[in-house]
C-alpha cells in the first residue's frame, strides 16, 4: 500500500465508486505529503473514511509535521475508538508502496510522471493532490522487482512484523475493538524504538534504504540523502520526545482519569449517601406526616374539648355571677341582720335592765304581798280546825304526811301536815310555799295558806275526793260515767300543759289517781304540786322508809327512764298520764293494764278491756284514748306523744261534747253542775252571785268575808283589785234558778 502526495500532480477526479472501493477490509492507509496542512487533512480524511482500520502516515519532506501532528493529533485520534495505531515516518523520497481504489485522471506534474515511470513496477503508487487521491498506479509482482525492492519495503516488512499481535488479530476479527490511547502510545513507542535502533545501529541499512530508493528513483544525491537521514534521525528523536510527551500526557490523563474515577466513586458514595439521606428524609417526612396527622387529630380533640370547656366556663361564669349576686344579697341581708341584731341587743339589754329593775320592785312587792296575801295560820288555828287532829277529820295519809279536813274562815279546807324541816329552814320553806301559791289553774288544787310553825299546807278542799277512790268505788261510790272520765283526762292534760309551759318548767313528778281530786261538780284538779321542793326526803329516814315501802305500788306510774336515771323530765309526767288514761278506760289493775290494753287492741277485742260501768263508751273515741295512752307508755321518752301537738287536739273535742251529754246522766248526784254556777271560794252553787273588780263572780257572803279578812286582791288572780265594790250578777242568778228548777 502506498500513496504519494503532490500538489503538482494536477487535477483529479474522484470516481463515484471511491467510497464503495474504500469499503474493503484489511486496508492500511499511508498518507504522505510535503505540506503539513495537507497531511493533516489527509490524515483526518483517512480516519474518517477508514474507520476500524489500521492507519499509517508516512511523511516525506517535512519531519517537523510529526511534531506538530502530535500530541494533538494523537489526542484527536484517541477520540476515534476505531483507530488502532498511527505511525508517522519521514521518508526522503515519498515512494509509496501500494495504491488501490481510485480512478485517475491524467497526470500533469513532472514529479508525478517521473515517479510513475521510474517506480518499480511492483509498486502501487497513489497520487494525492490537495488532500485528494487523484491517481493510482498498480504494481506488478515479479522476481526482479522483489529482488531490488528498496529498503523501505524491508522496513515496511519489519514494521509489519513489529506491529503488535493484537493489532494483527484485531484486523482479522469482524467485531470492532476499542483500543485505548495508552496502548497506542505503547505501540508507537515500540515501533519508534525499532526505527531508532535501525537508524542508529545500522547506518548502513539506512544508507541501503536510501540507496535502494535512489536506485529506484536515481533521485536524490548522496548529500541530500545524508541530510535526509539526519533529518530522519532528528525526526525520530522528536518522535520519541512526542511519545514521551504523549506518555506523560497520558499519565496525567490517567492520573486525571483516576482522580475522576475517585471523584466519581466519591460522587457515587456521596450520591449513595444522599440517596440514603433522601430515603431517611423520606421516612422522616413520612413519620412527620403521620405525626402531623396524629397531632392534627389531637388538635381537633383539643379544640373540641376547648369548645366544651369554653361552654362550661361560660356556664361557670354565669353561675359564679349568680352566686356573686346571691353572696352580695346575702351579705346585704347579713349586714341588715347584724344591724337588727345590734338593735335587738340594745333593746334586750334595756329590757333586761328593766326586768331587773321591775323584778327588784316585784320581789319587794311580792314579799310584802305574800306576807299579806298568802295567809299564814298559827299552829293553834290548825289545831283548832282539825279539832286537835281528830282522826275523824283525817281524810287520807300519804308518804309525805297526813291530810285532814276542816273549815277555815268559812272555807272548807284540806290541811296536809308535812314532816319536820330537816336541813330546810323555815324561811326557805316559806319561800317555796309562796312560789307554789302563785301557780294557779282551774285544774290545779289551790294552795290557800300555810302554817310554817307546823309545816302544814292548807289547800282548798275537794268534796268528791280522789279519782283513786272512785275507780275503786270506795265507800260504795258510784262508778264515774265515761263522760266524767273523759273530762278528767282532758282536765289533767290541760293542767300538765300549763305546768310544763311554765318558765321554768314545772314537773309534777307524782301523777297518779290519788293526786286527781274531784270537786263537788266532778271537776278534776291536780293536787300535791311541787311537794318535792318542800320535803328533804333523803334527810328523813322515817319518810325514806315509807318511800321505799310505797314505791313498789307507785313505781308502776313512774317513768322507767326516771327510775333508771333519777332525772325527772316532762316526758315522765306523760308516761304517768298514759297509765292514768288506761286505768280510767279499763279500771284494770295497775300491774297488767298496759299489757291488757295492748293485747285487746291487737286482737280487736277492745270491748273486753273497757270499763262498761262507766256506761256505753263511744267505741272509736275510747280506742283513740287507749291508743294514745299506750303511746304515752312507750319506754323511750322520745317515742311518747307531745301534749300540745298530739294529745290535746284529740282531747279538746271530747271535752266540748261532754257538757252536751251531761244531761243524760241518770244520777242527780253525778249530774254536771255548770262550773260558772259555782262560787270559786265556796265551791258551791251560788245563790247570790256578785261580780267583783277582777270580773269573776263570787257568792256574796264568800267575797265579802274575803274582803273583811283584809284582802284587797282577787282570790282568782292574786292581783290587786282596783276597788272592793260588788255588782250583782242577775243573769247568772236567773240561770242558776232555772237550772235548779230543772233538777
Ligand atoms: N285537797 C283535798 N281535798 C280532798 N281530799 C284530799 C285533798 N288532799 C288530799 N286528799 C285526800 O287525802 C288522801 C291522801 O293524799 P296524799 O296526797 O297525802 O297521799 P297519797 O297521794 O295517797 O300518797 P302519796 O302522797 O304518798 O303518794 C288522798 O287520797 C285524798 O283522798
Automatic annotation (TrEMBL):
One family name in Pfam for this protein: PK_Tyr_Ser-Thr
Species of provenance? Quercus suber (Cork oak)
EC number from the UniProt entry: 2.3.2.27
Tell me the domain of life: Eukaryota
> Where is ATP bound in this sequence?
416
Classification lineage: Eukaryota, Viridiplantae, Streptophyta, Embryophyta, Tracheophyta
Pathway(s) it belongs to: Protein modification; protein ubiquitination
The chemistry this enzyme catalyses reads: S-ubiquitinyl-[E2 ubiquitin-conjugating enzyme]-L-cysteine + [acceptor protein]-L-lysine = [E2 ubiquitin-conjugating enzyme]-L-cysteine + N(6)-ubiquitinyl-[acceptor protein]-L-lysine
Q: Name one GO molecular function term.
A: ATP binding
Looking at the record, the residues that make up the U-box domain are 672-743
Q: What does this protein do?
A: Functions as an E3 ubiquitin ligase.
Q: What name does this protein carry? A: RING-type E3 ubiquitin transferase
Q: What class of enzyme is it?
A: transferase
Q: Does the keyword Coiled coil apply?
A: yes
Provide the transmembrane region boundaries.
Answer: none
* GO BP terms in the entry: protein ubiquitination
- Residues annotated as domain Protein kinase: 389-651
Q: Which UniProt keywords apply?
A: ATP-binding, Coiled coil, Nucleotide-binding, Transferase, Ubl conjugation pathway
Q: Which residues form a coiled coil?
A: 257-340
InterPro entries per the record? Kinase-like_dom_sf, Prot_kinase_dom, Protein_kinase_ATP_BS, Ser-Thr/Tyr_kinase_cat_dom, U-box_ubiquitin_ligases, Ubox_domain, Znf_RING/FYVE/PHD
Amino acid at each position: 500500500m502506498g500513496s504519494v502526495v503532490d500538489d503538482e500532480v494536477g487535477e483529479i477526479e474522484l470516481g463515484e465508486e471511491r467510497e464503495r472501493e474504500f469499503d474493503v477490509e484489511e486496508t492500511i492507509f499511508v498518507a504522505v505529503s510535503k505540506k503539513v496542512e495537507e497531511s493533516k487533512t489527509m490524515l483526518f480524511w483517512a480516519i474518517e473514511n477508514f474507520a476500524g482500520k489500521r492507519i499509517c502516515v508516512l511523511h516525506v519532506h517535512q519531519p517537523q509535521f510529526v511534531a506538530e501532528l502530535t500530541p494533538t493529533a494523537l489526542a484527536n485520534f484517541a477520540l476515534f475508538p476505531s483507530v488502532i495505531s498511527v505511525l508517522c515516518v519521514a521518508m526522503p523520497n515519498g515512494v509509496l508502496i501500494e495504491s488501490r481504489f481510485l480512478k485517475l485522471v491524467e497526470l500533469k506534474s513532472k514529479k508525478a510522471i517521473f515517479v510513475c515511470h521510474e517506480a518499480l513496477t511492483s509498486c502501487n503508487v497513489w497520487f494525492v493532490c490537495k488532500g485528494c487521491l487523484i491517481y493510482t498506479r498498480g504494481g506488478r509482482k515479479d522476481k526482479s522487482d522483489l529482488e531490488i525492492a528498496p529498503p523501505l519495503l524491508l522496513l515496511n516488512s519489519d514494521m509489519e512484523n513489529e506491529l503488535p499481535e493484537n493489532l494483527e488479530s484485531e484486523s482479522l476479527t469482524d467485531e470492532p475493538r476499542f483500543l485505548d490511547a495508552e496502548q497506542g502510545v505503547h505501540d508507537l513507542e515500540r515501533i519508534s524504538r525499532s526505527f531508532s535502533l535501525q537508524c542508529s545501529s545500522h547506518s548502513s541499512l539506512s544508507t541501503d534504504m536510501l540507496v535502494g530508493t535512489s536506485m529506484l528513483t536515481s533521485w536524490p544525491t548522496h548529500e541530500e540523502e545524508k541530510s535526509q537521514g539526519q533529518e530522519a534521525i532528528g525526526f525520530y528523536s522528536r518522535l520519541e520526545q512526542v511519545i514521551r510527551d504523549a506518555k506523560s500526557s497520558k499519565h496525567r490523563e490517567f492520573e486525571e482519569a483516576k482522580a475522576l474515577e475517585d471523584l466519581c466513586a466519591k460522587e457515587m458514595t456521596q450520591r449513595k449517601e444522599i440517596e440514603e439521606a433522601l430515603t431517611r428524609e423520606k421516612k422522616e417526612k413520612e413519620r412527620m406526616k403521620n405525626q402531623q396527622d396524629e397531632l392534627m387529630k389531637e388538635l381537633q380533640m383539643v379544640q373540641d374539648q376547648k369548645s366544651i370547656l369554653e361552654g362550661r366556663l361560660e356556664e361557670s361564669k354565669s353561675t359564679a355571677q349568680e352566686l356573686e349576686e346571691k353572696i352580695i344579697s346575702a351579705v346585704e341581708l347579713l349586714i341588715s341582720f347584724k344591724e337588727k341584731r345590734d338593735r335587738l341587743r340594745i333593746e334586750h339589754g334595756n329590757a333586761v335592765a328593766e326586768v331587773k329593775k321591775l323584778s327588784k320592785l316585784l320581789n319587794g312587792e311580792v314579799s310584802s304581798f305574800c306576807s299579806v296575801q298568802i295567809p299564814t295560820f298559827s299552829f293553834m288555828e290548825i289545831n283548832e280546825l282539825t279539832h286537835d287532829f281528830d282522826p275523824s277529820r283525817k281524810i287520807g295519809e300519804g308518804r309525805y304526811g297526813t291530810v285532814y279536813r276542816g273549815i277555815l274562815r268559812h272555807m272548807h279546807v284540806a290541811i296536809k301536815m308535812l314532816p319536820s324541816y330537816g336541813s330546810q329552814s323555815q324561811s326557805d320553806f316559806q319561800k317555796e310555799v309562796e312560789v307554789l301559791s302563785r301557780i294557779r289553774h282551774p285544774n290545779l288544787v289551790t294552795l290557800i295558806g300555810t302554817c310554817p310553825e307546823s309545816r302544814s299546807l292548807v289547800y282548798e278542799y275537794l268534796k268528791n275526793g280522789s279519782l283513786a277512790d272512785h275507780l275503786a268505788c270506795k265507800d260504795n261510790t258510784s262508778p264515774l260515767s265515761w263522760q266524767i272520765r273523759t273530762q278528767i283526762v282532758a282536765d289533767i292534760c290541760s293542767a300538765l300543759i300549763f305546768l310544763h309551759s311554765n318558765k321554768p318548767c314545772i314537773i309534777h313528778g307524782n301523777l297518779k289517781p290519788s293526786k286527781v281530786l274531784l270537786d263537788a261538780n266532778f271537776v278534776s284538779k291536780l293536787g300535791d304540786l311541787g311537794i318535792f321542793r318542800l320535803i328533804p326526803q333523803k334527810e328523813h329516814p322515817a319518810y325514806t322508809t315509807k318511800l321505799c315501802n310505797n314505791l313498789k305500788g307507785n313505781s308502776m306510774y313512774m317513768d322507767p327512764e326516771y327510775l333508771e336515771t333519777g332525772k325527772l323530765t316532762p316526758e315522765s309526767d306523760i308516761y304517768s298520764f298514759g297509765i292514768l288514761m288506761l286505768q280510767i278506760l279499763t279500771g284494770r289493775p295497775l300491774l297488767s293494764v298496759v299489757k291488757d290494753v295492748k293485747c285487746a287492741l291487737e286482737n280487736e277485742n277492745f270491748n273486753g278491756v273497757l270499763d262498761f260501768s262507766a256506761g256505753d263508751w263511744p267505741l272509736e273515741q275510747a280506742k283513740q284514748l287507749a291508743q294514745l295512752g299506750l303511746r304515752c307508755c312507750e319506754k323511750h321518752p322520745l317515742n311518747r306523744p307531745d301534749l300540745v301537738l298530739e294529745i290535746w287536739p284529740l282531747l279538746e273535742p271530747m271535752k266540748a261534747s261532754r257538757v252536751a251529754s251531761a244531761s243524760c246522766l241518770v244520777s242527780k248526784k253525778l249530774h254536771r253542775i255548770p262550773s260558772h254556777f259555782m262560787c270559786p271560794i265556796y265551791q258551791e252553787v251560788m245563790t247570790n252571785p256578785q261580780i267583783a273588780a277582777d270580773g269573776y263572780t263570787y257568792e256574796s257572803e264568800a267575797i265579802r268575808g274575803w274582803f273583811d279578812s283584809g284582802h284587797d286582791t282577787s282570790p282568782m288572780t292574786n292581783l290587786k283589785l282596783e276597788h272592793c265594790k260588788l255588782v250583782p250578777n242577775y243573769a247568772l242568778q236567773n240561770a242558776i234558778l232555772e237550772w235548779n228548777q230543772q233538777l
